[in-house]
Every structure is written in structure tokens, then in C-alpha cells.
Amino acid sequence: MDNTSTRRSGPAAAMSRARFLRGAGALTTAFALGACGPATSRTKPGTSRVIALGYVKDTDAALAVGVTPIAMPRPSGLREPEPWTRAAIESLGGSPPEYLNLDTEPPIEHLAALRPDLILASGYYSIARFRDRLAQVAEVVLPVTGPNTDPWQDTALRIGRALGRAATAAQQVAETESAVRRARATYPRLAGRTFTYSSYTSTGGFWTKSSPDDLIARGLAAYGMNLAPAVARLPESEVRGMSPVSGELVDVLDADVTIVLTRSEEERRAYESGPLFAGLGSVRRGSYLPIGPADGNALAFPSVLSVRYAAGDVIPRLAAAIR
Which end of the chain has fewer CB atoms < 10 Å from its terminal CB, N or C? Predict the structure, then answer.
């Protein structure tokens, strides 16, 4: 879908309306805190014309309380939304969201033409650059500590309040937290186990998570797992929380379970055929878990829905890999 083609008069009319509302005090009240600062929502109950800009977290928070965004980020590396997001959209019925191409910058005029009541941007990585322009379109829910770094519970509750559905949001958060507790109780063998989480590169090496503060490490810590000490000692690169590992040093990826994000069968065959990777203790005993992009996103983009999906789908396979 082309998200940039609009009627010539639509964007201008919508922008004029937004500027009028802003002058009347109906838009976001924000106060500085860190890079972005939180938004104080004044959105009326029943708000339904919502645009989600943050990948996974913003879309899921709206869906969880029964609101299907009119537009959301184009699925990353997938032909359709993640399975839990797709299931929620289908269960709510109605028109599916339009996909937005946010690779460069948000199509501001097109967003204005959609006449949203609210823009969700708690997980939008470019919000610092575009927050003022977006605030001319509609009220914006901003991150507090930074894009995709606020606890998923806080984001879900804040968006629920902004949509006038605070009680439903609280219920959804409680259900997801309960799913995590059940999974931890069901798979006690995960407690105290070490893991590494990596992705293969075209140069024959890997990028691996190397910080216990990374979202994936924090998410697996909820089940008692710990990032393997060998990767935690690696120097960080310019990519926060990650370190490069050359093909010759792949032994650093050994752990109680070795997780590798695999984007294609061809890619999987490429690294699995390497003798050093095949020689890892975790690989030899069957404690190696390749996961696809959807499962990787469930861990990397924690939301009120993705965390629940991971607890019921990814965690059981992770436990089964422990030997």
C-alpha cells in the first residue's frame, strides 16, 4: 500500500485542524525527562483513530485493550505482522491497519490526512527528531526513558490510560505477568542456566548480545536465566548491548543453551556447516536453538502481547534445548 499518496486538500486541512487544536490546548502536555520525556494524556475515553509508530510495543498495547490502529509500522523482515499481533488484529475484526514505511522519516502529511486522535510513539526510535512535527498532527504518547526501553508494563498501562481503557490495560498486564510466572514454574530447569543470543553475519562471524541490560537478556532473566559470562566480558561495539564475534572466536558463544537468530535456511546452513560452530559443546549435546525473526522479535520487542507469546511458544522450546 502506498502510504504517501493522499488527496491534495486532505493533509493541509488536517494539519490546520491539528494546529487549531494545539492552540486550544488539546494536544500533548510533555515535560522534559531524559531525551524525550513522558506525555500527559488528555485523550477522551473512546479514542479509536490511533496511529502506532513504535514497532510492536505501541501496536500491541492498543490491540490488547481492543483498539486496532489505523496505521502501524510495516512488518520488519516479515511479510505480515508477527503472529501474536496478527491474531489480535483478526480477533478484533474490522479494517486492518495500513502499513507505514518508516525507514527514513514518518510521512507527516499522510499521517495528518488520516486524522488520528492519538499517535503512539513510545517505541519509535526517531521520536527525538520528529516529536514536534508529530505533535502538530495529534497528541503523542512518548517514551519516558527512551524508545523501546521503558518496561513493557508501564507502556501498556500508559497507553491504556491514553485510550480511556485503563482497567482493561491493567487486566492485560496482569494476564501477561501471570503467563510468565506459569512458564517459570513449568520450566524450573531454566533457572540458573546461561545463554548466548547471536545473529549470523555475511562475513562469517556473529553479532552477539553482550550486556545483561539488553532487553533480551532482561526478558530471559525473568525465567532465571543469565547471559553467559564469556560474552558479558566482551567489549561493546558502537551497537549498544552487542559485540561482534569473528568466525575464529565462535567458541565464546558456548553456553548452557546457544540461541541463534536465523533469517533463512541458507543462512542457517552456512554457519552450521562451520566446524568451529559444530564443535561447540552446546551444539554437540543438542542445546542449540535456532529461532526465526518472529520469535526473535518476541524477545527483542517486549510488549503486553509479545511477552505472553514468548512465554507460551519460545520458552518451552528453550527449556527443551537444555541438556
Answer: N
